[in-house]
C-alpha cells in the first residue's frame, strides 16, 4: 500500500504520527511525504491525524478531511482514514456527516488503523519513530492524557487520564533518537510537571530530565508544557545546574487574575502566579520564559483584562503566545458559563496583548546585542543560515539568521554566533570563528 499521512495539531500528535509511520514502514508500506502532490502518485490511502482542541483547529481538520474526500471522488486515492482528537471526540457525528471517509479511528486505535491498511501492529517498533522534524531535533512525548480539570479544556475528555510512559522506555526512545543524529530533545505532554505521579506515586520529571540529558549525543533538552500549580522545585534546580538542559521553560499560565484563574479551575491565584514567576527567575538566572495566555474568558471583564496587561508588562515573558476563549462542548465552562464576550472584543484584547508583548520581546532581543551565543543550525536558505539558541524553541519562537556561505554551516551542527541585529522576534548574527 502507498500511504500519505497528514498530521495536524500539536507536537504530541506529531509524535503519535511518527510512531505510526514507523509501524507503516516496518510493515513494508510505502509512505508518501506529507507535502507531496497526489496527482499521478498512485496513492492508495490518505490518513489524517486530526486535532480537536478548539474551534480553529477543528475547522482546519475538517477542511483537510474534505480535501482528502475530494481527492477520493477524483479517484486520486482509494481510501480516506481519519484518526486523532477530532475523530475521538466527534466520531458518531463525523460518520453521519462525512460517509465518504472509509473509517474514523480514536486516539488509541493504531492497531485497528494498521489492519485497515493491511498491516499489523508490531511491538518491536513501539519505541521507534520515523521523524517528521529535521533530523537534529525531536519531540519526546513523556505521557498521554491529563488529570487536571481546567474548565475550558476538552483534552481530558478526549485523551483520558494521565498515563506516564515508563522511564526505561523513554530512555530507550531517546537513545534511539540520539543514534539517528538527534541533538535536541524537546520534552512534551499535556502536563509535563505531573510526570510520574501515576506510576511512581511521586514527581519524576527532574530525574527524567537528568537521565535524558545524560544520553550520549544529546546536547540540549528543552522542557515545554509545564503546569504552574504546585510547580516542582527540583525541576528548577535541574534546569539551573544541568548545562545540557536549555535555560528555557514553557509554562502556560492562561491568565493572572484570581477571578479568572478560579473560574478556569487552574488551582492557582494571582499572587501564587506572580511568586512563581519570581521564583523561577531567581532559581534559573537568565532563563527564557515562554507562556500562553487566554483572552476573552467569560469571567474576564475590562478590569481583569487590565490586570492581565499589567502582569505581562511586569513579568516580561521572553516568549508569549495567546489565543481567544473558545467554548468547547463537554467542558465545565460550556455547561456553567455563558460565552458572552463578542468575537470583536476577544480579537481586540488579543491584538492589544500581542502588541504589548511585541515591545517586551523586542527589548529582550535588544538586550542580547553583542552576545556570543551557541546556535543550532536548522537549515540554510537565500544567503542565510537559520538557527536557534537555547532561548528559541522550534516552530513557535523566532530565529537567529546568520548571513554566510552555504559551505560555512551544516544543518544540525552547533556554531558560535555574535548577535548583531534585533527585531521583535528574530535576530541577526555573524559567525564567530572557533
Ligand atoms: S492541563 Fe488543563 S489545559 Fe492542559 S490539557 Fe490538562 S486540562 Fe487541558
Description:
This protein is of the alpha/beta class and 434 residues long. The protein has 3 domains: 2-125, Methylthiotransferase, N-terminal domain (Rossmann fold), CATH 3.40.50.12160; 137-366, Alpha-Beta Horseshoe (pyruvate-formate lyase- activating enzyme); 372-431, OB fold (Dihydrolipoamide Acetyltransferase, E2P) (Beta Barrel). It has 13 helices and 18 strands. It has helices at 11-26, 55-73, 85-97, 110-116, 155-159, 167-179, 205-213, 233-241, 258-263, 270-283, 302-315, 332-336, 343-366, and strands spanning 2-7, 30-32, 45-50, 79-84, 103-104, 137-141, 143-144, 163-164, 184-188, 220-223, 245-250, 288-295, 319-324, 372-381, 384-388, 400-403, 414-422, 427-431. The strands form 4 sheets. Strands 6-9-10-11-12-13 form a 6-stranded parallel sheet. Strands 2-1-3-4-5 form a 5-stranded parallel sheet, sandwiched between helices. α7 packs parallel to α8 (233-241) and α11 (302-315) runs parallel beside α13 (343-366). The N and C termini lie far apart (49 Å). Residues 146, 148, 150, 153, 155-156, 190-191, 227 line the site of iron/sulfur cluster (SF4).
